[in-house]
Design a protein that fits this description.
single chain; 2 domains; two-stranded antiparallel sheet; 36% helix; disordered C terminus; binds iron/sulfur cluster
Amino acid sequence: MPLPTTSRYDLDRGAFAALLVTEPSYRLDQLWQGLYRDLAEPSDITTLPKSVRSRIDEIPTSLSPVAESVSDGGDTVKWLWDLADGARIETVLMHYTDRSTVCISTQAGCAMACGFCATGQAGFERNLSTGEIVEQVVRAARRARPRRVSNVVFMGMGEPLANFDRTWEATERLHHDVGMSARHLTISTVGVVPGIRRLADAALPVNLAVSLHAANDALRDELVPINRRYPLAMLVDACLDYFAAKGRRISFEWAMIDGVNDRPSDAAELAAVARRCRAHVNLIPLNPTPGYPTVGSPRAHVREFCDRLGELGANATIRGTRGTDIDAACGQLRAGHEISVDAPTRRRPSPDR
Ligand code: SF4
């Protein structure tokens, strides 16, 4: 599907150079610095003459706010944005004591159809442009002031590696132009192996987060359908090669689903694969999703599961849930506005398989 009209953050330096061709060459640096280092609106880039500011101001941006929700005493802000063609995406800003992190979307909807995910159940609309990805960070970083956004995680709506080229262009823009360390940029994937291999060959050593959720093919085929195309053995090989190429510890994301992937046998399988890949495991207590029957593991059970992983020699922590009261899990804010999903659930069948 074609992308909508080019926005201000879709233009690269060459495009702006063409726009400023009658200006002294240093104007381009002033503009670029204003847009990306200072994250300013063109009208506030006072190093530029007024005539240039107003010309740049006329180039549209991509994101129009539909809803903004604040929770956790102001530490979590979530936006639902309308794009120029009416597609909707979401962005979350999270403040912690030692950092501020923005979680961004790379696609409107998602084609990966993970069974427990509101976005996956709603289907795929289109890839986001580079500008639509970058602008989410710009808007959140402005809102974060006087704090500075230090980390970006590509873990919002969509599968980043299914929109590889634009995800990577956005990553480079955030690193080279906004000035963020590659070590503070995390790209997630549900297991798109060719994308992991392209990442391993790319120049910047970004963090890789793999949404694993199951450590045997039968269960992973069910929870994460892309596993049928890239089964666990292929995924683990790609992770090992990524670690060898970048020296960056991989994280395995594991949404804790009651009675589905929280059994002792799941802990044993997960610990084995995490040890092999020297990966860190993030256990994610599931937020309740409106109209969606999948049930997260009880809190005490998440703790037990985490302890068990530790006993088995795996490095694991429980991710703090953010914004449960504002629908901060994947796809949920958008779901609350426009969709109701219905999917099968499985209850705890027995403590062991
Ligand atoms: S969990 Fe991620 S990859 Fe899976 S359907 Fe949801 S957005 Fe897509």
